[in-house]
């Protein structure tokens, strides 16, 4: 994994490590067990601003949802950078994408691609993953999208 390239690509996307969001409750952002790093749910937050709030298919478009998932994925990478280090990552294992939407909206896979595309483009092969997509009734702070992930890290 080319760490310099990852930092350059994140910067090109408008992300800097200082933008990493703190936990919103009584938990840690990254929990490491054995050689797996579990990243707590990340939302579309940039520079302490809550973005892409509302329901997909109602207040927000599918394209807004794609952008929200991409931003949440950038926040995941920010957490990895801050608490683990890209040099210690073997690869992304799995992502869970949560979204809130209007009853007749059904483009969850397109929205989830916002995160998947970022992970496949920035870390490259290390970003290959499985995923699950969940439509939920409500997310905290009325976020449209939330994302949890797990990564395999190199053993010492």
Question: How much strand content do the residues show?
Answer: 25-35%
- CATH superfamily (homologous) name: RutC-like
Helix-strand sequence: HEEEEHEHEE
CATH topology: 60s Ribosomal Protein L30, Chain: A
The second-level CATH architecture is 2-Layer Sandwich
End-to-end C-alpha gap: 17 Å
The helix fraction, in percent, is 25-40%
Number of helical regions: 3
Strand order of the largest sheet: 1-2-7-5-6
Q: Say how many strands there are.
A: 7
Q: Which structural class matches the secondary elements?
A: alpha+beta
Which spans of ≥5 residues are poorly predicted at pLDDT below 50? Answer: none
Protein name: YjgF/chorismate_mutase-like putative endoribonuclease
InterPro entries: Endoribo_LPSP/chorism_mut-like, RutC-like_sf
Structure description:
With 156 residues, the chain is an alpha+beta fold. It has a single domain, classed as RutC-like (60s Ribosomal Protein L30, Chain: A), CATH 3.30.1330.40. 29% of the residues lie in helices and 26% in strands. It contains three helices and seven strands; from the N terminus they run H-E-E-E-E-H-E-H-E-E. The protein has helices at 3-12, 62-83, 108-121; strands spanning 30-33, 36-42, 45-46, 49-50, 89-99, 130-135, 145-153. The strands form two sheets. The protein has a five-stranded mixed β-sheet. The protein has a two-stranded antiparallel ribbon with strand order 3-4. Strand 5, helix 3 and strand 6 (130-135) form a beta-alpha-beta unit. Helix 2 runs parallel beside helix 3 (108-121). It starts with a helix and ends with a strand. The relative contact order is 0.24.
